[in-house]
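New to this. Comment on this protein:
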Amino acid sequence: MEVWGLSSKRSTVMAGLVLVAALAMTIIIAPAAASAALSSKGTIKEANGKALVQPWGLTFDSSGNLFVGEPEGTVVDLYNSSNAYVSQFGASDFSQTYKFARQATVNDTTGVVYVAESGLEELLVYKPLGGGTYELIQRVSLEGEGFLYAAVDNSSSAHSGDVYVTAQLGSVAHVYIFKTNGAGELGAKEELTPPKGGFSLINEEQGQGGLAVSASNGDLYLPETEHKAVTIYGPEGTLLKTITGSEVPGGSFFPIGIAVDESSGEFYVVDEAHKTLDRFSSAGTYTGQQLTGFTKPLAVAVQNAAGPSKGYVYVSDGNVIKIYGEEKAPSKYPLTVKKTGTGAGTVTSSPAGINCGGTCTAEYTEGETVELKETEEPGSTFAGWSGACTGLGACNVTMSAAKEVKAEFTLTPPANLTPPVISGTAQEGHTLKTSNGTWEGSPSSYTYQWEDCNAAGEACTNIGGANGNEYTLTSLDVGHTLRVVVTAKNAGGSSAPVESAQTPVVEAGASNEVNPVVEGKVPQTLSLAESTCNHVNLGEFIPGVAANYTNTCAVTATDTGSDGKLTAEDREPAGHEGHLMNGSYFLPKALEAKAADAQSLGGGGALTSLESPVVLLSFSAPFSADEVTATFNQPIAKTDGLRTGIYKKTITLTLSSTSP
């Protein structure tokens, strides 16, 4: 470390620890206006039971926890959002020889803490383990870079999650931007292009105090002590503004610490030369010396987390951290409950205000915790919270903005209170009727199933088709008892089936009936009445031309038997069965026939040669007055020799039955 050549001055000028961080949240930047005065809200003087010694570094995380750097104690102190001491870490990791600035910054998403340790010229990375404990997971050397300060970009800019680091040894100053991985470890770095003449972050007489990054837009705020100015850079590295302090009494200042109020965009500057805290609007306009009369102001931080102390300003002055805040009425935000689902219920709040029911929205003070409690109505079940609360457990909402909670109630299936009751006379021919019984859960419909049981009301089986709320007793029920099963249904589902008590044993009906036999006789009938089948003309046969000559005839058929057949056959004794004859001449190809009936009872088929008897239709049931069409076809080949004259043959159609 002696290569710096400044060790004696460094231990005097930088005997402090500076912490700077910004909270990631959505803000609205308002135009410059008169600022409310700050008044004292208390002090912090101890850590771990010991008095603080020059607590140079101050920073907050997004939960309002305060980190304080103590160079003399070589530790980082942690306080909760109520300023109560929690723990210390880093004692074994820092230089015990060079008790220079140890300045930390917090990533609000991961909770990882980065400590710029000027005594060792290193950046130390700590992972949170819970309960205020931290584990060192990385050391990055910046040997030869001098005094180090760091701030995380907690905005949504292009450098979101990156760590800005300022370093200066002698007159050479740098601003680095380190990338981080998912575990929060530091990776590659790039350098912010310095302005003409370079950065000047340290003044040997007045000291130096770190940097800040706005969580709303990623702008970088640099107190350049030697230049007596604050410079502001955009996330892309462009110089946006230079504030010289010309409006400050005396015409200039020595800025050694800076912090941004994320709610208004205003920022505070520690002016070490005048021992004051200067306030500037979001546009960089000087709005006054808010606090004066400090002994040794070292650093400043704004508590930007939601809660009663939001906007409070913390200033380290000598060995004390002084807390200031504006006197203003706390903000109020609406909390709205929406009920969903098929069921019914009520949601109430503590503190009072919501009774939903009828009143489902109420306003509560920022930082106030509201407990919501659900009450189910009979027949409904609470299914869970969503929105600002989740799950089935307790719902406690801490107000920091307008919030909404959904409470889902689901309708349960109906539950039976009393079973159904059967009314009516248990006698053959009489009608029984069942009630639905009584239910909770507002049934929308019912189903029924009647059961046949033995005389003791046991061994019950379902009666097919008996699914109404009434049932007429038959002879099959005599000597038995009956029960009915009723099932109720609503939007929540179907209930368990509920069975009625058994009826008395069913008695036979009174003998008040006669049983006449009414009959009529059908005589055996087997008829085939010709209509057009006495003569079928196939037309003129043309020699030397291949053709089919076809014609039809119709008959009316009746058969009281059950297996009627319609056949066609050539019964002439002249020989050449099935062939049309002209004297002694006959056609080479046999006559063909088929039939179809209008009632489609006989089947029918394709044209068949009549060289032997042919069954044209077959019937399997009685029929009457069935119109039958017989088709005859004579095929003639081109080379068939045809004798002048008439070719003919008598064909016999027969309707027969073996089961008259």
User: Anything to note?
Assistant: DSSP finds one helix and 54 strands in the chain. The chain has four domains: 2-29+38-313, 332-411, 419-499, 526-656. Residues 1-34 have pLDDT under 50 and may be disordered.
